[in-house]
Design brief:
single chain, 278 residues, alpha/beta, Inosine-uridine Nucleoside N-ribohydrolase, Chain A, two-stranded antiparallel sheet, 13 helices, binds alpha-D-ribofuranose, binds calcium ion
Length: 278
């Protein structure tokens, strides 16, 4: 029986790859997307989520608009959040389903539901603060001894450190950190083989990385986290005692957290390539 999956997201180019991967995987039943500010502002992340689902033929999946906050990664994902190519995706006649993520989780979480949180954790912290337990929570975020927004903080945790603290301390998450996702690069060959509409979203992101590294592709941070929801066991994990500091850095602490440390990237890459080829 398909695994019920809710994705909390700030699309975002790697979010788009993650949403497409889930939409094209029969192992999961997409229960809904809850949107949050992050790569760009909430209005754009919500519009992008709607358009991606329409493009993927999944306009029936509800999109619930969550919390706003300070956008922070247009230099990576483009002003529209999708590499300046959001207009290449169709409108979604269904529109937003609601604007209360806590209510949506309360009404739709079941004992087998997996939640993949791939943006700032503001919505997820609100759900936990409402006393709602999330059966299985997979979070793309953090970095052990490294960051991508500051030297020590990864973007999703940096964007709302207090929410990240709540999730680490009370959410019992599986964390998928930069230490692993920086090894998961969708290079030019990969991008040439998948759905061209998805590849077409990556121009700004590729240019951003090419200016700063030898990298000729994009990091598929969020798709790595969602792959674990689709095929449990994709990521090899170990338990750490961690916390998040007030600047959003993942640090040693007193809270037991499962951390994804390794994966068979060639196999995962082939899996993603096959599913994202449309
Ligand atoms: O640091 C990477 C994370 O921040 C990804 O989720 C990316 O989409 C951005 O939200
Ligand atoms: Ca994201």
């Amino acid at each position: 029986m398909a695994i019920p999956l809710i994705i909390d997201t700030d699309p975002g180019v790697d979010d788009a790859f993650a949403i497409a991967l889930a939409a094209r995987s029969p192992e999961v039943k997409l229960v809904g997307l809850t949107t949050v500010f992050g790569n760009v502002g909430l209005e754009l992340t919500t519009r992008n989520a709607l358009r991606l689902l329409a493009y993927l033929g999944r306009a029936e999946v509800p999109v619930v608009e969550g919390f706003e906050g300070p956008a922070g990664a247009a230099d990576v994902h483009g002003e529209d959040g999708l590499g300046g190519q959001a207009h290449t995706l169709p409108d979604n006649e269904k529109g937003v389903y609601g604007d209360d993520p806590v209510r949506f989780f309360a009404d739709n979480l079941g004992p087998r539901t997996v939640v993949a949180a791939i943006g700032p954790l503001t919505n997820i912290a609100a759900v936990l603060d409402a006393g709602i337990e999330i059966p299985r929570l997979i979070v793309m975020g953090g970095g052990l001894g490294l960051g991508n927004t500051t030297e020590r903080a990864e973007f999703n945790f940096w964007a709302d450190p207090e929410a990240a603290q709540t999730v680490i301390r009370r959410g019992k998450p599986l964390i998928v950190p930069l230490n692993l996702t920086h090894r998961c690069i969708a290079d030019a060959e990969f991008l040439s083989r998948i759905d061209p509409v998805l590849s077409n979203l990556t121009g700004t992101y590729r240019a951003y990385l090419a200016d700063r590294s030898e990298n000729q592709g994009i990091y598929v941070h969020d798709a790595v986290a969602v792959a674990e929801a689709i095929v449990p066991g994709t990521l090899k994990t170990r338990t750490h005692l961690l916390d998040v500091d007030d600047d959003g850095a993942l640090v040693e602490g007193n809270h037991q957290v499962e951390v994804a440390e390794d994966t068979d990237w060639p196999a995962l890459r082939a899996f993603m390539e096959q599913r994202l080829s449309g």
